[in-house]
Amino acid sequence: MASPATIAIGGDLEVFRMGFGAMRITGPRILGWPDDRENALRVLRRAVELGVNLIDTADAYGPEVSELLIAEALHPYPEGLVVATKGGLLRTSSGAWPRDGRPEHLREACEGSLRRLRVDRVDLYQLHAPDPEVPFEDSVGGLARLQAEGKIRHVGLSNVSVEQLHRAQELVEVVSVQNRYSLADRSSEGVLDECERQGIAFLPWYPLAVGRLAEPGGALGRIADAHDATPAQLALAWLLARSPVVVAIPGTASVAHLEEDVAAASLDLTAEEFAELSATA
């Protein structure tokens, strides 16, 4: 089951379907600077060396630290590198993730990301999560205005339902959706199906959640052994085989794990293997 290696997000952002999620390069509990800053920079540079050209981050990671590290490691950015970021969540010192979808906050968040990333326009800016205290259309409308001003190239959504996707599309073109999804957690199956129907990129977060599926004697471990791969690599390969619109964004603070993740893109599952894994959840 060979899958296409790339996808054109929004029609003009051609990216390798194995991206990199830059949440884990920050400090413990996604707060502050990492204990080994040079290692974080090495991970980012190695990702690009391996051919990754989509790095996903957010202003809340650190907060701000992930974006600052990306700019420190990679600016001026290589041609074709897409740094996608998000706004609408906060990260508190207690470890909470409060939401703030007010248009004025999203403007402040976007403009802060522009400064930290050292760019004039974010190629892909995503609403991190709907805010139940703010009308959804107000939040999306705020991003549409930032796009009209040239501060955002393409708009994406995160943590949304099919119904919210459709509501957003009445205001702005949506080129990507980022929801929690993995071999073991398919609660966003309907959203992925709708993205595939429309040709919208789907970026699953927490893609390596396999839980009991990695237990000895299970299909995941057995098929991984047959490919001389790890269960995590098989979980990523399954995601890429699941739909041509999937762009995996596993995150790590380890160069070795990064190299394993990227290598998963070269694994080809047979139709029988894909069906067996699909039946495991």
Please describe the topology of this protein.
Blueprint (H helix, E strand, L loop, with lengths): L5 E4 L3 E4 L3 E2 L15 H13 L4 E3 L8 H10 L7 E6 L15 H15 L4 E6 L8 H13 L3 E7 L3 H8 L4 E5 L10 H10 L2 E2 L16 H8 L4 H12 L12 H9 L7 H8 L3
Parallel strand pairs: 3-4, 4-5, 5-6, 6-7, 7-8, 8-9
Antiparallel strand pairs: 1-2
Helix pairs in contact: 1-2, 1-9, 3-4, 7-8
Please characterize this protein's 3D structure.
It is a single chain. The protein has helices at 37-49, 65-74, 103-117, 136-148, 162-169, 189-198, 219-226, 231-242, 255-263, 271-278, and strands at residues 6-9, 13-16, 20-21, 54-56, 82-87, 122-127, 152-158, 174-178, 201-202. It has 281 residues and is α/β, with parallel strands linked by helices. The chain has one domain: NADP-dependent oxidoreductase domain (TIM Barrel, Alpha-Beta Barrel), CATH 3.20.20.100. The strands form 2 sheets. It has a 7-stranded parallel sheet with strand order 3-4-5-6-7-8-9, with helices on one face. A hairpin with a 3-residue loop joins strand 1 and strand 2 (13-16). The radius of gyration is 18 Å and the shape is globular.
